[in-house]
Design goal:
Low-confidence stretches of chain A: none
Order of helices and strands of chain A: HHHHHHHHH
Strand content of chain B: 25-35%
Number of helices of chain B: 9
CATH topology of the largest domain in chain B: Rossmann fold
Mean pLDDT of chain B: 88
Helix content of chain B: 25-40%
Order of helices and strands of chain B: EEEHEEHEHHHEHEHEEHH
Largest interface: A-B, 15 and 23 residues
Oligomer: heterodimer
Strand content of chain A: under 5%
Structural class of chain B: alpha/beta
Largest sheet of chain B: 6 strands, mixed
Mean pLDDT of chain A: 91
Radius of gyration of chain A: 22 Å
Structural class of chain A: mainly alpha
Helix content of chain A: over 70%
Strand order of the largest sheet of chain B: 6-7-8-3-9-10
Number of helices of chain A: 9
Number of strands of chain B: 10
Radius of gyration of chain B: 18 Å
CATH class of the largest domain in chain B: Alpha Beta
Chain lengths: 261, 242
């Protein structure tokens, strides 16, 4: 087997990385150009929103419920040591709304929707369906990419709101496992702890999470190499890079939020 | 000259170190069926993909209806593409859509079509290929031959002046292959379309061809009618027709 010097391999990987970033940026720029240009694919957008949003709801809801319960159960002993069990609803709700809810929902979303988009578009590419749209004189980018990215961008915030609400309900159930608090009192405590500064930045960043998951999934699928191996690789890298992008955006969002606060 | 609807001039295309097309020159006349015969991997499909701009050639030009497609803006190229039908080897039906939706798809940009017209066009296209009953089926419910027919119906729905067939009979049994070949001939007669038929199926070539070109290692090595080429003095060419 031929061996290459480490320096050569490093330079090659770095070049590949920047090429990939450049191509992804061009792909995203094309999205912004096409999204404002008529004709608008409202029907396809509604269809994608249904598939991406509504069909992801059960998974996001179950994850949210479990997350709320687990977080509460895990936090209780520590809070109890300080005699601060009554702060549990407030503490858990801030954690969920600010950070854990959006990030966990976005990661689940990247796994389910990002991989689905990557695999679907890659498979359409392999079976020449995208070429067939192109030779019909239509714009496959607009029909396939713009609608999917718009749907992920719009649907993830909605899913995160639903997930947060269900997580808080999970938290309420978990608090009641070893305690006794009414539904009304629980949510009074939650809403007295949570402020606009907790909700708004967390909601804004979910649009960016949704956009990144959608654009990466579409980019990987739309540009996949031929063959069934390419379909698997597109789905895989859509999840890996999409999840990584969620963390990077989250880190930037946290820095910006603390700067403005 | 005015009879020529498509032309490839000095077309060259390489993939990596492999020269797939080396100086290809071909003209397609109005109303003729031109068959391009060649072994697998000889660059036949690349040739028609260059003609509609799906693949950019390295050198030379592809001319459709007198216009060099590499000089056209995207919207101009799309307008031109609406006058050209393309039947892919796999038919490339959109597998998330029913047959009706597949046929509706190319019509979505036609603003002056109302719903009744669209329905009539879809039914007519399906009737032409004998598959009216499959209108609400999904592609996964169709056989290989039916998929090719629906692909042809989708190609026909915009009433193209040129149809490019990429291996229309590949993967089909001899009877279905013959049916598809006869359908190609029927389409040519009914709509006076000009067609390029990429194939390595000699039976299909015999039924459909007005003129045959044989491609070998990226260049055209022979041209003529089925009778002329099948009695060629060149043994390699003759071996195609045995």
């Amino acid at each position: 087997m031929e061996s290459y010097p480490a320096e050569y391999l490093f330079t090659k990987s770095l070049k590949g990385f920047f090429e990939e970033v450049g191509q992804l940026s061009r792909f995203a720029a094309r999205f912004f150009r096409e999204v404002v240009k008529p004709p608008y694919e409202f029907k396809a957008l509604m269809n994608q929103s249904y598939i991406i949003g509504y069909k992801s709801l059960p998974l996001i809801a179950i994850t949210g419920l479990i997350m709320g319960m687990v977080l509460t159960i895990q936090s209780r002993p520590t809070m109890a040591q300080f005699g601060a069990e009554s702060w549990l609803p407030g503490m858990v709700s801030i954690s969920i709304i600010r950070e854990i809810g959006p990030v966990i929902a976005a990661l689940i979303f990247a796994g389910k929707v990002g991989s689905g988009i990557g695999a679907e578009l890659a498979s359409m590419k392999v079976t020449e369906q995208i070429d067939a749209m192109e030779v019909s004189g239509l714009n496959p980018f607009k029909f396939l990419v713009v609608t999917r990215v718009a749907a992920t961008t719009l649907m993830l915030p909605v899913l995160v709101i639903a997930s947060d609400a269900i997580s808080l309900f999970g938290c309420f159930l978990a608090v009641n496992l070893k305690g006794d608090i009414s539904f009304h009192l629980f949510f009074t405590q939650v809403f007295s702890s949570v402020t606009f500064n907790d909700v708004f930045p967390a909601l804004i960043k979910t649009f960016f999470f949704g956009f990144s998951v959608g654009i990466i999934g579409c980019y990987k699928g739309y540009n996949s190499v031929k063959g069934t191996e390419g379909v698997g690789a597109a789905a895989n890298s859509a999840v890996v890079i999409g999840s990584l992008a969620v963390f990077i955006i989250d880190m930037i969002a946290v820095q910006l939020t603390s700067l403005f606060n | 000259m005015e009879d020529i609807v498509a032309e490839l001039e000095h077309l060259k295309k390489s993939f990596g170190t492999k020269d797939v097309l080396k100086d290809i020159n071909v003209t397609l006349k109005k109303g003729e069926n031109l068959v391009v015969l060649g072994k697998s991997g000889s660059g036949k499909s690349v040739l028609i993909k260059c003609l509609v701009g799906l693949i950019d050639p390295d050198d030379g030009k592809a001319v459709l209806f007198g216009k060099n497609i590499s000089e056209l803006q995207n919207h101009e190229l799309n307008l031109l593409r609406k006058r050209v039908g393309f039947l892919f080897q796999s038919a490339a039906l959109y597998d998330s859509m029913t047959v009706r939706e597949n046929l509706e798809f190319p019509l979505r940009d036609l603003k002056d079509q109302d719903k009744t017209d669209t329905e009539a066009l879809i039914r007519e296209a399906l009737k032409n290929v004998g598959l009216e009953e499959a209108i609400d089926k999904m592609p996964s419910e169709l056989s290989g031959g039916m998929i090719k027919r629906v692909g042809l119906a989708r190609t026909l729905i915009l009433k193209p002046e040129i149809i490019l067939y990429d291996e229309p009979t590949t993967g089909l049994d001899p009877i279905t292959s013959k049916e598809i070949s006869n359908l190609i001939l029927e389409v040519q007669r009914k709509y006076s379309t000009a067609s390029i038929i990429i194939t390595h199926d000699v039976a299909c070539a015999r039924i459909t061809a007005n003129r045959i070109i044989i491609i070998k290692d990226g260049i055209f090595i022979a041209e003529g009618t089925f009778g002329e080429l099948s009695s060629s003095e060149d043994e390699w060419i003759r071996s195609f027709f045995i």
